[in-house]
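Histidine/lysine/arginine/ornithine transport system permease protein HisM
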Amino acid sequence: MIELIRQYWQNYLFTDGFNTTGLAITLWLLVASIVLGFVLAVPLAIARASRNRYISGPVWLYTYIFRGTPLYVQLLLIYTGLYSLHFVHSHDMLNSFFRNAMNCTLLAFALNECAYATEIFAGSIRETSHGEIEAAQAYGMSKFKLYTRIILPSALRRALPSYSNEVILMLHATTLAFTATVPDILKVARDVNSATYATFQAYGIAAILYASIVFALIWGFRKLEIRLLAYLKPQGH
């Protein structure tokens, strides 16, 4: 394993000499999909928690489809399925977008992440204390201020433990990127294995890298939970 690290460490971490590969690509996919998913999930979670079925219904359908089908199938549909449609490859902008493996992979990951995050956040919004809402209404807050100052800050903090697990699962899901020829950690490990036939060592290095990222995520989210959820701890007398 040490010899493989010496020979292929750049491939696993940053570049193969021509293109960005390995850890850098995996982290980019993770961060980009999480950020895009979060930005989309917040307004969708508000709609999902609405009592109006015409507002919550379409969001429920979207989350049901993306949570009810495997991410691998979604990636294949977006990467190869959509491009086979005539209106996609006949339109210059769509053709350019869906010909790029990274674009398709990121789109699939972001939509999948958004679906799970939407349900997590919507559940936290529904669990917001009625006392907090009534107090804000008594204070004269508009619905916009009620959400931006009371409901969303409280809901997002309480959703942090569940959301941190979803982020880790999203990291694991990035291993599917190699099926779209995206040079992530697993793709590099497969290439190294093909070149050296050192299967245990090639995939062992990949496992160590993934485990290191997970430990860093757990540590970071734990620090956030201690800071943001301190008010939920029982107070001593």
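thats it. The longest helix spans residues 199-228. The chain has one domain: 2-232. bye
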